[in-house]
Amino acid sequence: MANISIPSLDELSLNDSTREPTTANTPTAPPTPAILSEIQNIATHVQPPTVPAHRSHDPSNNLKRSDPFQFGSRYLEEGDSIFEFNAWDHVDPSTDPLYTSYTAHQLAFQRTHAVTPFDARRFATHPDKWWDKFYTHNTSHFFKDRKWLRQEFPVLSDCTRARTAAEAADPHVGRNVILEVGAGAGNTAFPILAGNENPRLVIHACDFSRKAVELIRAHEAYDGERIRAEVWDLADATETLPPGVEPGSVDVVVLIFVFSALSPEQWGQAVKNVWRALKPGGEVCFRDYGRGDLAQVRFKKGRWLEENFYVRGDGTRVYFFDEEELRGIWTGRVSADKVGREPEGEEEMSSSDGRDEATEEKAGAGGGTEETIRDTGAEILAFEAVSLGVDRRLLVNRQKQLKMYRCWMQGRFRKPESSGMAPRKSIPQSTDAASLQGSGDRININRS
């Protein structure tokens, strides 16, 4: 309740008979019962002006009382004021004619003002140096810790949960291994480690940038036993796995804003390397940029490399995905002109691991014939798409009355149990509804 200002006795319009005379040299006498009664009467009937509480400040409405934040439950409905909240979930930008027109204009402008062939080769030849520069400049301050990971991907909770007495005593229950690719400064690995209750968990945090790996090793929580940081190229054509990672030994591969940093020609090799690392039944936790994201739309001239593929001002590259395109890449139904295509130019392009925002569609990038499945000779690489969806969010600047449409892709892909490699016995995964669906899944297949 707002504070009520009670006027002084000298300011009250009271009858002289009820007021005790005072002088500058005489202390004020205590108020009489009559005066106290009148003060109480004034305080009761004179209310200060009231301002309706903003709905986003109301705990019953703002949906922001959990840690980590429960995403995906604030819908923009008819009658709502867009600028009443800072963000709305699942808002389709196609419903905004002005933004749709702006997007079409921007994409057309980008195509006609592409990167020069010289710069395209320069950024593709040694992408690692651009990521080294990025982490040298930003160190560990660019990204926030991803506290939402286990909420979004329940399989991580299964890997980090405490073991039962029977599991701890069973010599056949092996360790649980998480391989994070594009680990950056450790904003994924260290939050997972902080919530870990499994004494046999090992996290391999790998990145294309040597500087990023140095930052992880310098972190106070790094011990070299539970978490091991190494330089590794996700699209390594020799199919060499990170040091200490045996083929078929990994329970979960975490790819958060990593795939987008690869050139399209490298997707096929990256999928093969992930497949080789995972044990049968292992999962990929995936999140990356979606087609039409504001980050794509606002690129200026001289940044367009090819359709949906750009180079940032700092020299790092980024691709924006479509749902069906991703489904094809991971389930084996791929466009032959994209996956496995030889890089153009005199020197072979190498990969770089990605980054997310400072703060997170149709197939076909075109024209190629479709392969039913990707066959490497010895085995067929066809992941099961456990979940895959588009995560859209409308962010608003209430002060400047600005709207910003963000779009990300999120999914889970599983290596089939019958992939030809005997699985190592591991901790059984829980099968309760919360674990299967996720308590606050940003994608939440029931919603998108």
Tell me what you see in this structure.
The structure is a single chain. The chain is of the alpha/beta class. 24% of the residues lie in helices and 18% in strands. The protein is built from 13 helices and 13 strands. An 8-stranded mixed beta sheet has the order 1-12-13-6-5-2-3-4. The protein has a 3-stranded antiparallel beta sheet with strand order 7-8-9, with no helix packed on it. The longest helix has 16 residues, at 97-112. It is globular. The two termini are 42 Å apart.
Q: What tags apply to this protein structure?
A:
disordered C terminus, 448 residues, 13 helices, alpha/beta
Shape: globular
Assembly state (oligomeric): single chain
Q: Tell me the number of helical segments per DSSP (H or I, 4 or more residues long).
A: 13
Number of strands: 13
Q: What structural class do helix, strand and pairing data support?
A: alpha/beta
Helix residue percentage: 10-25%
The pLDDT mean sits at 75
Distance between the termini: 42 Å
Q: Strand-residue fraction?
A: 15-25%
Strand order of the largest sheet: 1-12-13-6-5-2-3-4
Largest sheet: 8 strands, mixed
Brief overview, please?
The chain is of the alpha/beta class and 448 residues long.
Q: In terms of topology, how is this protein built?
A:
Elements: H1 33-45, E1 87-89, H2 97-112, H3 117-125, H4 127-138, H5 149-152, H6 154-160, H7 165-169, E2 176-181, H8 189-194, E3 201-207, H9 210-217, E4 227-231, E5 250-256, H10 267-277, E6 278-289, H11 294-297, E7 304-306, E8 309-311, E9 317-319, H12 323-331, E10 334-335, E11 370-371, E12 384-397, E13 402-414, H13 433-437
Parallel strand pairs: 2-3, 2-5, 3-4, 5-6
Antiparallel strand pairs: 1-12, 6-13, 7-8, 8-9, 10-11, 12-13
